[in-house]
Amino acid sequence: MSIGSATRRAAGVVAGGFVLSALATLWLLRDGLTSAQLGGVLVVHALAALATCAALWAVQRWWLRGGEPLMAQLDAAGQGRIAERAQDGPVEWAPMSRTINVALTRLKAQLDDRDQRLGELHAEISVDPVTGLAARAQFMDKLSLVLHDPDASATGGLVLLRVDDLAGLNQRAGRERADELLKQVATLLRTRALRLDAAGGTVARLNGADFAVLVPRVDADALDSWTRDLAEALHGLKQRELTDRPRVGWLAASVVASGETVGAVMSRVDRGLQAGEGGDTAWQMVRATRSGPTVSLAQWRSLIDEALLTGRVELALAPIRAADGAVTQQLAQVQLENADGRRFGADEVLPAALRTARVADIDLRVAELALARIAGHAEHYEKVAIRISPRSAERPSFVTRLDEALAGVGALAQRLSVEFDIDGERHVVSVLGPLTAVLQRHGVRIGIRRVVAPPEDLALLRRLGVGYLRLGSSLSTGLAGDGSAGKRRLLQLMAELGASEQLRVLAAEAATSADAQLLRSVGIPCADASIEEVRST
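^ EAL domain-containing protein, sequence as received from the core. Prediction below:
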């Protein structure tokens, strides 16, 4: 309701009130007053009504000249049109007009600051401040567009690069050197992407150590060749001593097709990247498979939580055999099963567990299953080796619960071996922390995985309780033929060195029966290609 309509309504009410008052007065005084006196009463009431209505009309004009413009100014401010207004109405409105102008000026400054911050935030989300590359949000938008291409036959290429131990380099060499490595990697990716796509595709830094390259249209052979060349170019950065790691990082590439989901594509390439980190090759070409429905990150969270709750977690055991066929230990890896009976191996589960912050739960469950297996086969003196992520070792709750589980089986805990993926024995102390003391107290053997060269400090390994080394795949495969004679001699020397220092050398699953025979012939036990699946009970 406007001030004008409100005033008119008030004037009507006032006039009606005076009429009723006059009528009531005339009726009450009809016998005591003369006609002239009654007429005077009516005139007085009429004049009072007119005076009141005139006052209301004056108030209306006063409001319309001063209040209405200010209300319009505030209404415009509510719609984002903020501006000061010169006071040209009654002087009584001047203080309020000045106050409103000051308030709106401050509000405009706050909105301008908000818009600036939003712009900066958008730039931060869209562009990585260190490298100048696209950030994760922009990259995911581009990937979504490629996957929603209306051309059903359209394919693109996705390459992920993970810089090796960026956080460690930052601590050891300083942030400046780490940033310089990131900038050089970004420049290399940006220039190399032009060789694959004239427009350069989309080159992004997804997070601290992860980079990505997306090309809308590319075939598998071209992507394969380009990724191989990129791996060699990254080795050039290593030669410039920008990093103190054995390699700058790992690469994984895959062709992506229209109609796939973002989660399926990222999960597939990320698994390839994890496989690369778990092996010894600098790059992996991941093939798109249709063997089963893809699992999104949200689905992985539910799958892992449900499997842990319902007990659908199993161990896949690979017997490690010596030359005489005796089983020296069982190498255990995790398996999950969903409600539909589909099974997921360690190469799928562990990367997903890392990304969903559930790797400590998985590692603890695997340790419990391994200890139960040992206790259930106590008379056979069975030994089981498990893998624990350094991420789990960082969690005090995991260390405490593992300590309790080990104490629960008493002396049988000595039959358990725990392996870690650690590059270089000197990092064992910093990575494992208090977990080392717990394992040593219970007599658990500690192993280091993915060893590709003789250890530099055997005395340090002995002090840390490391009992064995498990060879990386590059040393334990492709051993037949004259071209691998040098590798076989190296294996022989490592086995002899380990025996003299009470540090056993083992291998994982052999690629072929010939490789298995050669490994065992030099005194290095290994697993055959077949894996015995054991349901956790």
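Residues 35-78 form the longest helix (44 residues).
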